[in-house]
Design a protein that fits this description.
Layout: H1 5-18, E1 52-56, E2 61-68, E3 71-77, H2 87-91, H3 96-105, E4 107-114, H4 115-119, E5 125-126, H5 140-149, E6 152-155, H6 163-172, H7 177-184, H8 187-204, H9 211-224
Antiparallel strand pairs: 1-2, 1-5, 2-3, 3-4, 4-6
Helix pairs in contact: 1-8, 5-6, 8-9
Keywords: Acyltransferase, Membrane, Signal, Transferase, Transmembrane, Transmembrane helix
InterPro entries: LRAT, LRAT_dom
Pfam families: LRAT (PF04970)
Amino acid sequence: TMKNPVPQAASLLLEKLMLLVHIRPLPAGSGGETPPPAPGYYDTSCFKRGDLLEVPRTLFIHFGIYLGENRVAHLMPDILPSITGDRRQIQQVVTNKRLILGVIARTASVRVDTVEDFAYGGSILVNHMDRLFEDQVLGSEEAARRAEKLVGATAYSLLWNNCEHFVTYCRYGAPFCETVKMIIRDQRSVLASVLVGLASIVCLGVAPSTTLPTIFIPFFLWMAG
């Protein structure tokens, strides 16, 4: 007999989605989250306060602002800030379930984590985006202060308010609207949007009202751009 392809498709979609950010999917049969690298895994001596850190992933790049003392401020989808104010719970490493529900509910938080938790074993690029905003780079202290002021719960949108928007505002002072076209024209972001929408459909069995725009709007805007 043929196996039902739906669970296999769902597993593949979720695995790809988890690669977009620093949360990794649970290994098959695992009872807990894969731990991040131990402290000291990264040499932070080359990082300066206010630096923009990039961690390349399969489809996305995850971004953060280095605050000094092995701390990085970054924006992540997370359902928990919308249902509790307990800072100790929120500050725990974001689980796969929290991340998926945050994407679907369009909620997130700007959080401060160690470099190890932020990068999760990935390679780190420093200030790589400066070449795109070479005349707009703010002072390092200003970038760090902007990031610190935004720490806490926030809305999330894969296209309009994500980790890239957060860092471009902090380091370059760029309004979100100025980076939208650049993101939409990036085919990786379009594909990622499709994966997010399809994953939520497969997991929930129905398409929530926010899912269809997530799938189709990026494609049409990209084609029109």
